[in-house]
Design brief:
Helix content is 73%, strand content 0%. The protein is an all-alpha fold. It is elongated and about 55 Å long.
């Protein structure tokens, strides 16, 4: 069985939402850094001790983060548009493993590092993926024909 079109569209929208957010990290570093400052420091301004070099490096790191997230979501979109939309069970599990792996690692690291505010946007992204994934659990077929390049 194939997932209904609504679930394919919703999970695609989740991936595109991550790409949009990640693009903002690259295209509007000052704006997005203010958002991360709220998460990390409780205000939009940088701490007083941050030099222009430190601020520039933070913007660079967030740009790299945005690029990595865009690459990740392009791979997820390929999984969604081809094998997942055709009902391949392995692709459902690949998307779940990818999103849950990111969520658990990123959220745990955020909490352990003392930045619990980062768990909030993580939870939003997780829910965006979880709704269509949970709705399509078990409806994809699990046959030898959907391994590899087969439809």
């Amino acid at each position: 069985m194939k997932p209904d079109l609504i679930w394919i569209r919703l999970i695609s929208a989740a991936a595109l939402g991550v790409i949009l957010f990640s693009s903002l990290l690259l295209l509007t570093p000052e704006l997005t850094q203010r958002g991360f400052n709220i998460v990390a420091f409780g205000r939009t301004a940088y701490p007083a001790g941050f030099t222009p070099t430190v601020i520039g490096y933070l913007e660079f790191v967030y740009g790299v983060l945005g690029a990595v997230m865009i690459g990740w979501m392009l791979a997820v979109l390929a999984l969604i548009q081809i094998p997942y939309s055709r009902g391949a069970t392995w692709s459902w599990w690949a998307i779940v493993a990818s999103v849950l792996g990111w969520f658990v690692i990123d959220t745990t690291f955020s909490l352990v590092s003392g930045y619990p505010g980062n768990a909030v946007p993580n939870a939003v992204f997780l829910v965006m993926f979880a709704v269509p994934l949970l709705a399509t659990f078990g409806i994809t077929r699990n046959t030898a024909s959907n391994i590899g390049n087969a439809p």
